[in-house]
Amino acid sequence: MSTPAEPLPVASCTVCGTEVEMDVARCPSCGLARPTARGPQVLARSGFWMLGIVLFAVYAVVLLIVASAH
Ligand SMILES: [Zn+2]
Fold first, then answer.
1. In a domain, 14, yes or no
2. pLDDT tens digit sequence for 22-38
């Protein structure tokens, strides 16, 4: 599994959407510092949604149990 002609990893700026290289210090278009450093933010957001889904699932299961008990 080797890709000899692997292109440079390119990501887009989180503010203006300009394609910039990974690990670039500053966006050339809007000047945002570390425009591609958004991994933890995305992870936190998906974690937040996962927490909400899990909480809703627990709530639904409890509701079903209570409804079937009465
Ligand atoms: Zn930008």
1. yes
2. 888 888 999 988 878 75
